[in-house]
Write a structure and sequence with these properties.
Elements lengths: L2 H24 L6 H12 L4 E2 H8 L3 H13 L3 E3 L10 E4 L1 H21 L5 H30 L3
Antiparallel strand pairs: 1-3, 2-3
């Protein structure tokens, strides 16, 4: 297998497996894969996060994030302390139920990451995460540049 095949097939397989694992682990809570990141980052934050900030952290668009938060609000995981007609900039706060699932998700992520990196030394893990971050940033820059070229007629 050449590098392109190994890279793209591995990345696609990892993405699919992550979604499947999230869905399987959240099924008993009535949650789906997209809710995991919302609850995780709200739980890990030391202060309330706005929907706008959560979009940036989770790298999701406003529409998808709004749907996720609406679902979490309706199901008593999150409260939106909206003081404006546009809750996009209002703080999101976990309920007691949200705190409970946030703790569960955080612990489960630790277990999953330990399983995923089994057989790797701490140094190899550090290198892997650093490499993934560099690759992600490089591809983001490349994508931005090709979009600029399209907009400039190139």
């Amino acid at each position: 297998m050449d590098r392109y095949e190994l890279f793209t097939l591995s990345i696609n397989n990892l993405a699919r497996l992550i979604i499947k694992i999230k869905s399987a682990e959240m099924k008993s809570w009535g949650l789906k894969s997209p809710h995991v990141s919302c609850l995780y980052f709200l739980y890990k934050s030391n202060e309330p996060i706005t929907l706008k900030q959560l979009c940036q952290i989770c790298q999701q668009d406003k529409g998808a994030m709004s749907r996720n938060i609406n679902f979490l609000e309706r199901n008593d995981f999150v409260i939106c302390k909206s003081k404006t007609p546009k809750p996009y900039n209002s703080p999101l706060i976990l309920t007691k139920k949200g705190e409970e699932i946030g703790k569960f998700i955080s612990n489960k992520i630790d277990t999953i990451l330990n399983n995923a990196t089994k057989g790797l030394t701490n140094q190899e893990k550090d290198i892997m995460y650093r490499c993934l971050d560099i690759i992600s940033n490089n591809l983001s820059i490349y994508y931005t540049n090709i979009n600029k070229g399209e907009k400039n007629g190139n």
